Structures are given as structure tokens and as C-alpha cells.
Amino acid sequence: MLKARIIPCLDVNDGRVVKGVKFQNLRDAGSPEELAAHYEEQGADELVVLDVSATRQARLAMLETVEIVRKQLSIPLTVGGGVGSVEDAGRLLNAGADKVSINSAAVRNPDLVNEMAQRFGAQCTVVAIDAKMTDGQFQVLTRSGTEAETLDAVAWAGEAQQRGAGEILLTSFDRDGTRSGYDLPMLTAVTNACSLPVIASGGANNVAHMVEAFEHGAHAVLAASIFHDGNMTVNDVKRELAHQGISTRTLVS
Questions:
Q1: Catalytic one among 11, 51, 88, 152?
Q2: Domain ranges of the chain
Q3: Is residue 130 annotated as a catalytic residue, yes or no?
Q4: pLDDT tens digits, residue range 95-112?
Q5: In CATH, what number does 5-243 get?
Q6: Which residues, 6+ apart, have CB-to-CB distance to 38 below 8 Å?
Q7: How many CB atoms lie within 10 A of CB 136?
Q8: Is 11 noted as a catalytic residue in this protein?
Q9: Which of 45, 88, 130, 152 is catalytic?
């Protein structure tokens, strides 16, 4: 049984970490390099950096930010934002990413998943799925939640697995930044549809929410607001999860 992973997320806009609600009303949360170092010290298992304006601005995630963050870390780093080609993914990997997250471009061109997995391996290929409940199905959203697709998130997760993805980063648009808990029906549906590790994202406010996510099939939980606002440290989360019987990686002494 793989140990549960706790993953802070840095949404980056114009070189600063930001946080919003349902991808809107972004507020400044600090420096990427300082927060990256801070979370590694707290015991983060991995770190995710998402350039939230890259796709809308038709550019790749800022390589300089990736390089700066990488210098602070020894833990795995996943980077996403504006990745439109295998060459884009290669640039991020060369800048220091361990994994590359693809979203909008993969929806437009699903073969990109195959191409990345073949070139870099499944372990580097993360398919990020942003979705919301619409008319009884979990509708995929792209371009930072601004465009609704005629694609079901559950079916897309299954297809991503068939195409060679190594991991799914599943974000609930409805729960993002709300601190109302992860979208458990969505999480259950996706984890039942594929056997890939699924990272639950969107809505964490406390350890109880994380316990629920793990109980509903998540292999890892992503969180931002509770860490950025100083409500809990990563180590606090791991300690409480251990008390709940959920095995995590080593606590920081």
C-alpha cells in the first residue's frame, strides 16, 4: 500500500503565488521560492507549481520561476501551465520539473498524452482535470475554468490512463478555494474509473476533509489555502492523519 502524500500547491501568476475561489479573485500569497523552501521544511512529499495565466496568455509556464523553485527543493516537483507540445514539456523538465501537468492542450489534442508518455515516461506525465457538476455529469473545464467542454471527467480520466498517463490531478471547480471539503462524488467516480494514482484538489479546510478524500480513493491530497494562510503545517496534517490510522511519509522531527 502506497503511503498517502501531502502536496502543497503554488498557483503562480506573474511570478507571485496567488490563491482564489473557483479560480477567480486571486490574492497574493507570497514568493514561490520562499514558500517552496518553507513547505519542504514542513515535510511536504511533493510540490505542484501551476502557472495559472499561462494558457490564457498563450505561453509556457515561466521557466525562470521553475528554475528558482527547483533550487529550493529536493522533493519531486510537478509543473503545469501552457504546455502545448512535447517540446514544451521538455523545456519544463530541463528547467527542473520532475513531472509535467497537462490540461487544456491534452483535451484539444489527446495524442499529446501518448506522445509525452512515450518520450518521457508515464511517471512524468500528469493529466490535470478541472471539472464541475453540470446536468448530472462532471463536465471538464479548460483554460483555467473559463471554457466548458463536451467531455465527461470520468471518461476522460479513463482515456488518459489508456493513453499512458501516470497520474491524475483532479480539481473540483465548485470546491476550489471554498474550504468546504473535497468533491467526494467526483473523486469516487474518477478513482473507480481508472487505477492511476489520483491527487484530490479543491476544497480542503482541515484534516477531516483529507481523511475523507483518502477514504474515497485519493492517493494524495493537494492543498493551498490552509497552508498559505498558516492554519496548519504539512507536519501538523501528517501527525493528525497518523492518529487517524492513515500512513504518511516520514514526519519532520
A1: 11
A2: 5-243
A3: yes
A4: 999 999 999 999 999 999
A5: 3.20.20.70
A6: none
A7: 6
A8: yes
A9: 130
